[in-house]
Design goal:
The protein is elongated, with a radius of gyration of 20 Å. The relative contact order is 0.22. The chain has one domain. It is built from 10 helices and no strands.
Length: 233
Amino acid sequence: MLFSAFILGLLGSFHCVGMCGPIAFMLPVDRNNALKKGLQITVYHFGRLLAYSIIGLVFGLIGKSLYLFGFQQQLSIFIGILMILVVLIPQKIFNKYNFSKSIYRLISKVKSALGSAMKKKTMDTFLTIGFLNGFLPCGLVYMAVFAAIASGNALNGSLYMAVFGLGTIPLMTTAIYFSQFLKGAARQKIQKIIPIFIIVIGALFILRGLGLGIPYISPAPVYDAVSAGMECH
């Protein structure tokens, strides 16, 4: 599933750059020193990965609590169905009910802190900007969070979100160096692929939850494997 996290981050960054792109364009990097600029960008990405890892840790703990109550398989199926529904349900329905209104109130404070950080040029500023950037709302981040919940524990949840963040690095770095690359038909074509990929990931989560005994894709539940082992003896 970690491979899916990287691909989700890689493809999803073509969508997320609409939110994070302006931040990347306005990073107060050193335009005259290529080495220093590269280091500043690296610190910025590290801040984002740190934020994603913390988010994954928190939601992975939620998934672990459900796992301890025996809901791991049901959770995996539910998350898979939810991911597919988010893609299939028209965006205007989400806008109608304004599910994220309360979230955006909190995010406004994050944006305010980002504005203050943008005025500085010390190395820790780039860590702060990247860290706060990681908490900005993004539909693809929400998809990754769903997967982190279904991962079953805090470590896996944190790792999933970190790998998702790694997948976003190539495009976000390109956004800083070559903003013109993000425009045109290529970006639109890739954005059309994203919903299909999310549906595929959702289907994989459903298959995993069904426990069909397919190695790596839909492994049998632990208690079934234990029972089978006992019967062999």
